[in-house]
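Wed. Picked up where I left off yesterday with DNA integrity scanning protein DisA nucleotide-binding domain protein. The coffee machine is broken again, so keeping this brief.
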Amino acid sequence: LPLSMQQDIKKTFGTRHRAALGLSEITDSIVLIVSEETGAISLAYDSKIYYDLNSSDIKTQLSMLLTDYQDSVSQEASEYEN
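Structure written out below (C-alpha cells, as returned):
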C-alpha cells in the first residue's frame, strides 16, 4: 500500500492511517479507517483525513462526497454527449 509522506498528520496515526491517506492521495477513493486501539473512525479523501467521526459525521461526509462525485460524473457525461 502507498504510505503517505505527509508530515502534518497526528503522530499517533500508524500504518493503517498513513496507508489510507496514501490511497486518497493517488486515487479518487473514499477510505474509511477504524482504529484498532480506540475504535475511532476516520475518513480519508483527496489527501485529507477527517478523524474521530461519529456516525452522523460519517453519513454527512459520505453523502456530501458521493453527491459531489455523482454531479461531476453527470456533468462529464453531458459534455461528452454534446
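Quick read: Strands lie at 30-34, 41-45, 48-53.
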